[in-house]
Write a structure and sequence with these properties.
The chain is mostly helical. The chain has helices at residues 7-18, 34-46, 57-67.
Length: 76
């Protein structure tokens, strides 16, 4: 969600960047801002998910699946 903060947000930005989305300028901050929200929505659209900008279970699962990794929860 907008203005959320923490290391999970920074990791989310790394994952989005790795997938070709633009979550904001580097170095990545730990703040979920407008650029992060837009990148999450674009990712969700690319996966035919509801593009609500929220990183819930379906979005986390899609991120993990697309990245072919097992990672920590990105956002709670």
């Amino acid at each position: 969600a907008l203005d959320s903060r923490g290391p999970d947000v920074r990791e989310l930005k790394r994952w989005l960047r790795a997938l070709g989305f633009k979550p904001g300028p580097r170095p990545f901050t730990s703040r979920f801002d407008e650029a992060t929200d837009a990148a999450v929505r674009a990712f969700q659209e690319s996966q035919q998910l509801v593009a609500d900008g929220k990183v819930g279970p379906l979005t986390r699962g899609a991120l993990v699946s697309v990245l072919a990794i097992v990672g920590p929860e990105v956002c709670r």
